Each structure stands twice: as structure tokens, then as C-alpha cells.
């Protein structure tokens, strides 16, 4: 990975059993060696999973903008979200507000690419997205949860993750 590029993985979640029908969004930022640099999560109301995935991207881009970074790579485990943001398909009307927010944020960056990745390649963001069950919003830049550090180390070692 080029040295001045920042790579975010993003994920959204839905949960019906904890606090009713709620969801969340999360992102993780890792360096070229695979080490975790930052992670964040936000709790969301009842929406579609697409909106939660897009909210994860929005949160990552807000974080990157606040840090002053200009070259961003976003990986998301939703082909639909990636295709919408890459202008391959039209955005559904229900997601237009967050889509518009993201498009405004994208204009800030010198370079930004959005890639679809399979869920198995997105485990750190998926883990962080689950934090919406505990807090309304959280950003980690140090003192990462031990389970997150374990996932990062296993991923760096190439451990195969089978998810259904």
C-alpha cells in the first residue's frame, strides 16, 4: 500500500434482540502491515442494512477528514453500497440523505477509491460495528479491545475465517 494512503474497512449491522430493532455502523483503519491504527462505531436507529453500511463509510470519511488525510481507500462488504458510491447503479430513495452526505465528503479528498470485499475480509470492521450494542458512539485510537487485537493478529497470520 502506498505510504500516504489510508485504508478503511467499513461494516453495518442490524440487531433485533438487544434493544429492539436497532443497528450500527463501524470502521477500522489499518496500516500497510495490517496493524490497527483506529476504529469507530456508532449506534443507529431502525433503517435498512444498506443505510447502516453507508453510515459506516460516512463515519470513516468524517474521521479521515478530521485527521486531514487526503488519499483514502474504503473497503465495504456490501456490493450494493460499493456500486452505488461508484455510480454503477442509482441510489434508492431511502438512502439518499446519507448518500448525499458521503458525496459531499468525497469531494474533500484528493483521491478516494471504494472497493467491495467479501465478509471474510472485513472481520475487524464487523467486530467494531457490534459496539453499537454498548455505546452510542466510540472512537478508538489506542487501548483497543483485546478481542479486536486478537482478530487483527489472526488476520495478519492468515488464519482462515469461515463465516456463514
From TrEMBL:
Domain of life: Eukaryota
RNase H type-1 domain mapped to chain residues: 21-131
InterPro entries per UniProt: RNase_H-like (IPR053151), RNase_H-like_dom_plant (IPR044730), RNaseH-like_sf (IPR012337), RNaseH_domain (IPR002156), RNaseH_sf (IPR036397)
Entry-linked Gene3D superfamilies: Ribonuclease H-like superfamily/Ribonuclease H
Pfam families named in the record: RVT_3
PANTHER family named among the record's database cross-references: OS05G0353850 PROTEIN (PTHR47723), POLYNUCLEOTIDYL TRANSFERASE, RIBONUCLEASE H-LIKE SUPERFAMILY PROTEIN (PTHR47723:SF19)
Protein name, entry field: RNase H type-1 domain-containing protein
Organism the protein comes from: Coffea arabica
Chain's gene name: LOC140037924
Amino acid at each position: 500500500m502506498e505510504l500516504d494512503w489510508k485504508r478503511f474497512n467499513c461494516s453495518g449491522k442490524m440487531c433485533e434482540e438487544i434493544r429492539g430493532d436497532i443497528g450500527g455502523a463501524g470502521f477500522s483503519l489499518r496500516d500497510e502491515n495490517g496493524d490497527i491504527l483506529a476504529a469507530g462505531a456508532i449506534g443507529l436507529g431502525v433503517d435498512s442494512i444498506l443505510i447502516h453500511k453507508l453510515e459506516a463509510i460516512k463515519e470513516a470519511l468524517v474521521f479521515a477528514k478530521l485527521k486531514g488525510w487526503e488519499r483514502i481507500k474504503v473497503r465495504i462488504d456490501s456490493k450494493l453500497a460499493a456500486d452505488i458510491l461508484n455510480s454503477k447503479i442509482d441510489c434508492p430513495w431511502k438512502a439518499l440523505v446519507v448518500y448525499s452526505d458521503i458525496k459531499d465528503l468525497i469531494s474533500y479528498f484528493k483521491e478516494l477509491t471504494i472497493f467491495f470485499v467479501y465478509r471474510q475480509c472485513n472481520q475487524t470492521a464487523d467486530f467494531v460495528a457490534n459496539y453499537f450494542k454498548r455505546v452510542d458512539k466510540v472512537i478508538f485510537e489506542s487501548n483497543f479491545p483485546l478481542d479486536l487485537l486478537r482478530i487483527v493478529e489472526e488476520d495478519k497470520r492468515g488464519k482462515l475465517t469461515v463465516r456463514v
